[in-house]
Design goal:
The chain is α/β, with parallel strands linked by helices. It is built from 20 helices and 21 strands. Helix content is about 45%, strand content about 15%. Helix 7 links the parallel strand 11 and strand 12. One of its GO terms (cellular component) is plasma membrane. It is a multi-pass membrane protein.
């Protein structure tokens, strides 16, 4: 018993069928189908499953005598050898594949239809019957005798599943091409056209759809005629006369490739030129048609073609015709002689073939790769049948194999052959047992491969990092502007009364506070982790020490105004400097101990998120971190208490109320920082820390210096000794 499965059909030109038999068909006969013996030339390859191909290697044939001494007419369709090569290329790929039809080899047998539809169908039936003689009526349309997967049959009639239930194709139906041609004609504003079609299903159905669409678009047909290349000369002559007598200058065609050649030959004999031709995919990009257009009948023709495509490796395969030669048949000999215009058995001084000629030296329809879209259709057709066979041959199973990214789960109470497939958990891959990915990796969406986890940290390139950087640099610039104002007006009473030396030191430390926030941005490294926390701790202590010194100066200065008081000698400029140095050295000592015992270090946090790595700085010693932060808080609270006690001192000395506000803001920021820092995920914890640094720095800058700058720049009348003394006397 044999099973005939269709593979490919060329519209009126070529067929490819699949034959699956219990035993391999094998024959070395070189035969030609005809009404007398029903045979054609063939070449073949071994295989467990046989693919049969029917191609038009000759456009015509002659009846041979029973001794089979004569040959078919000279080889004309070298382009069909490309279709044969495309079929062989797909078969070779499938045979070398471990996924598609594993352990099964595909063979092939190709026949020459000699350009005759009944002989093409007879070849297909011969494949099914093991080369037994079969004949089909010549009235049967080529692509309708046996339904197929077609690479070039575009007739819309083949979409009728009631008539052709097993017909499939890898090329769009003419239904779309016909409508596209009408749209194309309308686009150029051509409303008065002629129409010529091949008198078969391809031409008649295609032109019918075009006519219907053209009428809807307001396009009129002056004439619509049909013919076929086997018509008598009188029929072609009548069409030539119709064209010559017409007034329309645009001709829309639905014509087969061999028929358009017949038509332009007739037109050239009557010197009919100067018409705009609109064509279909059958001939519009055909190299043989271009070669026959010697009288420029079709110059400027436009039309619809098959979309561009490329099959990797097929061009190199085309140039290697050894697979064809290996079958050792007469057809290859004819092909080689036609390709190089030579003969192996040369007579009458004809060029002699050696068999070693180089294909790269010739330019013809076989070496022309413009048919790549059609070759791609052949390629896809063979693969379609291979996939169908793959499913048919699947040697009965309880459960389908698990797809990659899933694992087997045995069904309760059933044998081990019965199981369900469940997706692997996140971070796991494989198809048998799910395997955990390495720590630095994570499973992709399909759970079939481990991919490197993305790393996350606050960078300068992202919006948040850029905004924080801008805020830091803006704060630094503002601090420098304030320092310049204080330097320029350093001899004015308001600057001198507010301890200018500590003010400049405070401005310097504030600029460092703004800049130290930049160390928290970027990919953490060993040095950046140590620098960011140490710089933060020391600069803020320096800043708070200056504020504390200014607060003590305010208190001491008020007591110095009381009769008999000499407290200022105990807290003069030297003592102020020493106090700032002493407070700062304590923080330096804490930082040194922290760095010595257990310093901060870069750390890959893989626990917070399973699918990504958070690059952050681990504290090393938590005691060291909280000691640094606690010491800053202690100085801030002390400064706040002293400033609060001194808030009602006379205005000319009174920085205390501004210090109170600044310390209030400072303490509020850092008290809210702790819970926000602990609860923020990933890089947002770093963002919270930077925000706290910038907020507290801006608070100090605005509360302590902006009011003074306002008076210096906008209220200069208040920046005088007389004004300050009068205000003091008023308060007293």
């Amino acid at each position: 018993m044999s099973v005939l499965l269709p593979v490919i059909c060329h519209s009126g030109l070529a067929l490819l069928y699949l034959l699956m038999k219990a035993s391999l068909l094998y024959s070395k006969d070189n035969i030609c189908f005809r009404r007398g013996d029903q045979r054609s030339f063939s070449f073949f390859g071994d295989g467990e499953l046989l693919l049969g191909g029917i191609f038009t290697f000759h456009n015509s044939w002659i009846i041979r005598q029973h001794n089979y001494t004569q040959k078919p007419l000279p080889l004309q369709c070298t382009s069909n050898f490309q279709f044969a090569q495309a079929m062989l290329f797909a078969i070779a790929e499938i045979n070398n594949s471990s996924d598609l039809l594993p352990g099964v080899s595909l063979g092939y047998r190709m026949y020459d239809s000699c350009g005759s539809p009944p002989h093409g169908v007879a070849g297909a039936l011969a494949l099914a019957n093991g080369n037994e003689a079969t004949f089909v009526s010549s009235e049967t349309p080529f692509c309708m005798a046996i339904a197929t997967i077609s690479h070039f049959a575009t007739c819309a009639c083949l979409s009728d599943k009631a008539k052709y239930p097993s017909f499939f194709r890898t090329i769009p139906s003419d239904l779309y091409q016909s409508r596209a041609l009408a749209q194309l004609v309308r686009h150029f504003g051509w409303t008065w056209v002629g129409a010529i079609r091949t008198n078969d299903d391809y031409g008649n159905n295609g032109m019918a759809t075009f006519t219907e669409t053209a009428n809807q678009l307001g396009i009129c047909l002056e004439y619509s005629v049909s013919f076929i290349s086997t018509d008598p000369p009188e029929k072609l002559l009548s069409i030539v006369n119709i064209i010559k007598q017409s007034t329309s200058k645009v001709i829309v065609t639905f014509i087969q490739q061999n028929d358009i050649i017949t038509l332009i030959t007739a037109l050239s004999e009557h010197n009919v030129t100067g018409y705009q031709w609109v064509g279909t995919e059958a001939w519009i990009v055909d190299s043989e048609t271009v070669a026959m257009n010697k009288h420029h009948i079709l110059d400027g023709a436009i039309g619809v073609s098959i979309p561009e495509a490329h099959v990797r490796g097929i061009e190199e395969f085309m140039m290697d015709v050894k697979p064809l030669n290996s079958s050792g048949n007469q057809l290859f000999t004819e092909f080689w002689e036609a390709l190089f215009s030579c003969e192996f058995n040369s007579k009458n001084n004809q060029k002699r073939c050696t068999g070693t000629e180089d294909l790269s030296d010739v330019k013809n329809s076989f070496t022309d790769m413009s048919l790549m879209p059609i070759l791609n259709n052949v390629y896809k057709g063979v693969y379609a049948v291979a996939h169908a066979l793959h499913k048919i041959l699947k040697s009965s199973i309880c459960s389908k194999p698990c797809l990659p990214g899933t694992r087997k789960v045995l069904q309760k109470g059933k044998p081990v052959c019965c199981y369900d497939c469940t997706p692997c958990a996140e971070g796991e891959i494989n198809s048998i047992t799910c395997i955990q990915c390495p720590l630095d990796f994570w499973s992709n969406a399909q759970r079939v491969a481990c991919v490197k986890k993305e790393t996350e940290f606050l960078s300068y390139e992202e919006i948040m990092g850029a905004l924080l950087t801008a805020a830091s640099l803006f704060g630094t610039c503002m601090t420098c502007v304030v320092a310049w104002i204080f330097l320029k007006y350093r001899k004015t009473p308001i600057v001198r009364a507010n301890n200018s030396e500590l003010s400049f030191l405070l401005l310097f430390s504030l600029s460092l506070c703004f800049l130290c926030s930049l160390t928290f941005i970027g990919r953490p490294s060993e040095w950046s982790c140590m620098l960011r926390h140490i710089a933060f701790g020391i600069t803020f202590v320096l800043c708070i020490s200056c504020v504390l010194g200014k607060t003590i100066v305010v208190l001491m200065a008020f007591r110095a105004t009381l009769p008999g008081s000499n407290v200022m000698k105990w807290f003069g400029p030297l003592q102020q400097r020493l106090s700032v140095v002493a407070f700062t050295l304590i923080q330096v000592l804490i930082c040194v101990l922290w760095l010595t015992i257990s310093p901060p270090f870069p750390f890959k946090n893989m626990k917070q998120f399973t699918y990504k790595i958070i690059m952050e700085c681990a504290m090393g010693s938590a005691i060291g971190f909280w000691a640094v932060l606690g010491y800053i808080g202690l100085l801030a609270v002390l400064c706040f208490v002293l400033a609060f006690l001194a808030r009602k001192l006379p205005d000319n000395f009174n920085e205390a109320k501004f210090i109170t506000f600044s310390m209030l803001i400072f303490c509020a920021v850092w008290v809210t920082f702790i819970p926000a820092y602990i609860s923020s995920p990933g890089k947002f914890s770093v963002t919270v820390e930077i925000f706290a640094i910038l907020a507290s720095s801006y608070g100090l800058l605005f509360c302590l210096f902006i009011p003074k700058c306002y008076i210096i720049l906008l209220k200069p009348e208040k920046n005088s000794k007389k004004y300050l003394m009068s205000k003091r006397n008023h308060k007293i």
